[in-house]
């Protein structure tokens, strides 16, 4: 009875730290180094200042043509190639347009995303109703949520397109300079390298876009596959294995968690992947090239299922290596119950083998193979009736397997940013309430200890990544400021072609960073839309009908699983929407307070005649305003950084205080072993290292 009460306390504590709102906030914390818009906007005022200085050049010195060697088919973006100075004015105009539409569209995104939390509440309320009510009301809510995502996608695409236009214009202008100006061979080589880098980034962005579309299209297919996996598992679940089956079903639902960080990193990862491919084209697959980001994401999503299979085997053997023959073998039907685990591992292995090569594939394959090997050993013992089993060896095999599973799970969560504590689905929570005392308490408690350490380590790593990104942005900001100071030190008439060229390169860099963030926004909205579409792709009635004769689990029907699957997808969508709303609020605040009046000043400067006595005063006003804005944004970044560090500490303390009070103490040796496994997985460890040390 005391054990059951302790287990009940742990389940309640887990429920407290897995509340949907807490998981959303944790996602926000995990995403901070990757979707940190107040930092990404630090180059904003400098970009505007550079555009202003470019406009001023047109008032200064003698002009020249860049139309000596035009590209085949003519210029695509340059309107006036016979005047370099007019081209600079065109760049300033286009930059002004981009920042203007960015502010307007982001404010609309903020207003649209504001309604998603209420819609999510309505969806959850509907999912608690009878199937007929769900079928009647749910599609309308999901369609409304999808239309918001689609509209936001269009708004973000429009901004991305505007920044792309400015970047392509600058790129074409620099290319024209290469072929039109002589005597600057060394300087033009730097320009050439810059353009090559830009082209590689564009190639990476296009490849990432294509990969992302394929990934989003696969989400619908994944829902169907997950349901088929559920059917297969339920069709063959052995008698008395309800707790094991429920653990596996929960892992199926958790494998559907779509992580915003994986999508946010897609362009950066694809760029590394392309560079890796070009540098190691002669190497063996995965012999030095970067990971394929989609393959990595897909394989990592199976970590929770592999963990459930490891736990299933662990329950068959006690600490001394004694086998629970009642759980392992059904004498009446002469059925080896662990065959279910073996078949499930074989299905997972088949899926993993179909993925492209990446750093986690070898470890996942090895775990599946180990599970199959242990199952074969258990089957031989069960069918032969052997009494002289090497208990110590068997227990060591399972212990070794569980260590690798834990290592792989930690590595997967570190790579994708998936939270260790996922929110409980409504029907899963009801099942837990009805079955307290029947679940494997030792597994629940061991997993809870492990997840606490995982969560602490992930939040610690996130804090370190945030610090690195903060230092990196500070350095980049200083570099941009230096070129601006150099430019301003020149009299207008002294700003020659080479200075203009350097300004264009820096402008290209600054605007390129802003554009990359808009690419991420587009990905986020496409993800929301795809997640919702996966819920709408098949009627709930169809899912339930295809369940056929599936016996299911007592107190948890196939109907419950379908509703939980829909909840999971809708929660994933609302999680991303919450992140988007946070970003849009930050952008709108920073843009309103520090950018838009500078953009207006740039507009006035562009429209003024250079001979106007107020022209120089407006230039100085814009320069001073941009300097003040840059400092104000930097102060805001430091303030947000302190808030982030405080929130990280708060989340760690909540997890520790809620769960540690409910959990039995573990020995120092056990705690050290858990911490070592988590750190090895999350601090990046190769398969060779894993084989060496585990």
Overview of this structure, please?
This protein has 694 residues and is mostly helical. It has one domain. Helix content is 77%, strand content 1%. It has 25 helices and 2 strands. A two-stranded antiparallel ribbon has the order 1-2. The two termini are 37 Å apart. The C terminus is likely disordered.
Outline:
By secondary structure, this protein is mainly α. The chain has one domain.
Keywords:
coiled coil, mainly alpha, 694 residues, 77% helix, two-stranded antiparallel sheet
| Radius of gyration from the alpha-carbon trace, in angstroms | 29 Å
Q: How many strands, what sense, and barrel or not for the largest sheet?
A: 2 strands, antiparallel
- Extract low-pLDDT stretches: 278-289, 685-694
Specify the overall morphology. Answer: elongated
Strand tally is 2
State the secondary-structure class.
mainly alpha
Q: What is the typical, i.e. mean, pLDDT?
A: 75
- Number of structural domains: 1
N- to C-terminal distance = 37 Å
The side-by-side strand order for the widest beta sheet comes to 1-2
- What is the helix content? over 70%
Order of helices and strands: HHHHHHHHHHHHHHEEHHHHHHHHHHH
Work out the strand percent.
Answer: under 5%
Number of H- or I-type helical stretches: 25
Any chance you could write out the topology, listing elements then pairs?
Elements: H1 2-17, H2 20-31, H3 37-40, H4 43-57, H5 84-113, H6 116-127, H7 131-180, H8 185-235, H9 242-254, H10 260-264, H11 266-279, H12 293-300, H13 303-314, H14 325-328, E1 329-330, E2 335-336, H15 339-354, H16 361-384, H17 391-416, H18 426-434, H19 441-489, H20 497-536, H21 540-546, H22 558-607, H23 614-660, H24 668-682, H25 687-693
Antiparallel strand pairs: 1-2
Helix pairs in contact: 1-19, 1-23, 2-22, 4-5, 4-19, 4-20, 4-22, 4-23, 5-7, 5-22, 6-7, 6-22, 7-8, 7-20, 8-9, 8-11, 8-20, 8-22, 9-13, 12-17, 13-15, 13-16, 13-17, 15-16, 16-17, 17-24, 19-20, 19-23, 19-24, 20-22, 22-23
Keywords: Coiled coil
Coiled coil: 181-225
